[in-house]
Specification:
heterodimer, A: mainly alpha, MetI-like fold, 13 helices, globular, B: mainly alpha, 74% helix
Chain lengths: 272, 279
């Protein structure tokens, strides 16, 4: 007992030291952003940059590129999550119910983007996007097609865990025997049961889309990160503030997600 | 047959936006500007600037993978000894989730604001007589990029490695102690060997993560293309030299080959890991 108590004490000191030191390394650049965005011209502190960032009228009038980027990213978030869910949830459920043979193939395809760097995807997508622009126009919104591919591995894993936790076959058979059609099974039986998995897949997608730069930049489309990078040449302080704000937004999204996950575990303690 | 119709949309979509782009890269790497087969693109990879970009990328990824793995593992251990579901752990894991994924432009700005020419640490160090602003160290692959990349590698290590550390059962330590072993014996003969495969596996994952990263370097470096993702980006955005139309695809193929080799090793290790940690 004495040994264990001593170990716990030394563990606690060690833990604080490690977390403290590494925490300092992580805090400094974030503090740097706060410090940089609150510098007043003559020395001293001002919140002017942050006031500008949250003043919709000024952004609208003086920083149209930032506004366009924010709107584009908002649209991309919605479209990416929508395509991802509409495509993945029915497919993954259907494969479990009727085509267990292709499950490995679906998994392989979904995890494939992990081995293909975004920059490589850009090279291969360039001709594809020439066709997308030809059929659908040059809108930044169509970047969502590529973003769905980027989020595929993360969304697949989240949804796979969710579907593993319920007995898809029994639920679907029960619903079918009571006269439900496939759309009803999907919408009223499966979806409510994998709510939390759907939420975490969506949250991960939101965070990824908010931070995406590579594809949008190389295809010369608008999104938040591209706009921030451009803005940096004109107003470094405002660009840094916008970047920090986006980071905080993504953090809030992921932090909220950690509570969603916790909620599920406490409801279904022993399920796989 | 009817059942197959249900998966048609998925396969149609992934064919257009994932399989075809991959094939364009793989096939295009062996075609010249007039779509005739050639090995010229691959031999163009031996050009000194491309070769050295590859070497720099590999070195940068390897060094930051090791640094990220070591510090990330320490952090993971520290976090795992904390209370499960406690506020510290929840905060640290969410924060790491953001910092690991959210590199790019934000990270570049953060470091410029901190240790750039006008950064507050730079100014502060000037006051005590250390001059960081005198050189462009922050924008060089061997110096600044290592620091900046490590910043997103550590959080990723925590996310990947935490489950492995959490898989260590307290009973193992108690068993080691009841047999007269001390802390060193425990780490050397029990925890170390159990964690080793996941540690190396996570390090490989970190390698591919840094190797694939484009945004951070693109936002930080405005002149030259010292690493391979920037070289590839350059072939997309600038005029291509006649006869070199598909060298970008060959470089992209080179990246895929390196990532694929590393990921295969990772999968092999992952299989070994599951044996002990029962994940």
């Amino acid at each position: 007992m004495k040994l264990r108590a001593a170990r716990r004490r030394s563990q606690s000191i060690l833990r604080r030291m490690i977390v403290g030191l590494i925490g300092l390394f992580f805090a400094l650049p974030l503090l740097g952003m706060v410090e940089f965005t609150t510098r007043a011209p003559g020395g001293g502190r001002t919140l002017e940059t942050w006031a500008t960032l949250f003043d919709a009228a000024t952004i609208d009038a003086n920083y149209p590129e930032l506004k366009a980027g924010i709107l584009a990213s908002a649209g991309l978030v919605v479209l990416t999550v929508a395509i991802m869910l509409i495509m993945l949830v029915p497919t993954m459920t259907w494969v479990r119910l009727r085509l267990p043979g292709v499950r490995r193939l679906v998994e392989f395809v979904c995890l494939l983007p992990l081995t293909i760097p975004a920059i490589v995807l850009v090279v291969g997508l360039a001709p594809v996007y020439a066709w997308v622009a030809y059929f659908l126009g040059e809108s930044s919104l169509w970047l969502a097609f590529a973003y769905v591919v980027l989020v595929l591995p993360y969304a697949y894993r989240a949804l796979d865990a969710g579907l593993n936790a319920i007995d898809v076959n029994t639920l679907a058979e029960a619903a079918r025997s009571l006269g439900a059609g496939w759309p009803t099974v999907m919408w009223r039986i499966i979806l409510p049961n994998v709510r939390t998995a759907v939420l975490s897949a969506s949250f991960l997608s939101v965070a990824l889309v908010l931070g995406e730069f590579t594809i949008a930049n190389l295809f010369s489309r608008d999104n938040l990160q591209v706009a921030i990078n451009l803005l940096n040449k004109r107003d470094a302080s405002l660009a840094t503030a916008a970047a920090l704000a986006a980071l905080i937004l993504a953090f809030i999204v992921l932090f909220a997600m950690s509570f969603v996950g916790a909620g599920r575990r406490s409801h279904q303690p022993e399920e796989n | 047959m009817g059942a197959l119709l249900g998966v048609l949309p998925f396969f149609a979509y992934t064919t257009i936006f994932l399989v075809i782009p991959t094939l364009i890269v793989v096939v295009g790497a062996f075609l010249d500007g007039n779509s005739r087969p050639t090995l010229g693109n691959l031999s163009a990879l031996t050009q000194p600037q491309i070769m050295s970009a590859f070497i720099r990328s590999v070195l940068l990824s390897a060094v930051t993978a090791v640094l990220g793995a070591v510090f990330g593992a320490l952090l993971a251990y520290a976090v795992s000894t904390g209370r499960e579901g406690g506020p510290l752990r929840r905060l640290v894991t969410s924060l790491c989730g953001v910092l690991a994924q959210f590199g790019g432009v934000t990270l570049a700005f953060a470091f410029v604001a901190t240790v750039g020419f006008q950064g507050f640490v730079t100014l502060w160090l000037q006051n005590v007589g250390i001059d960081l602003a005198g050189s462009t160290w922050l924008f060089e692959p061997g110096k600044g990029l290592i620091l900046v990349y490590t910043y997103f590698q550590i959080p990723l290590m925590l996310i990947v490695f935490l489950p492995a550390v959490e898989g260590l059962r307290p009973q193992w330590r108690e068993a080691a102690e009841s047999l007269g072993g001390n802390t060193w014996h425990y780490w050397r003969h029990v925890a170390g060997p159990i964690l080793a495969p996941s540690f190396i596996g996570a390090m490989l994952l970190l390698f591919t993560n840094a190797f694939s990263a484009y945004a951070t370097a693109a936002a930080l470096i405005s002149q030259g293309s010292p690493i391979i993702p920037l070289q590839i980006g350059g072939t997309l955005s600038s005029e291509v030299i006649l006869g070199q139309e598909n060298v970008g695809k060959a470089m992209a193929l080179g990246m895929v080959v390196i990532v694929a080799v590393v990921m295969t090793l990772y999968t092999v290790l992952e299989r070994r890991t599951t044996r002990w940690l029962g994940r």
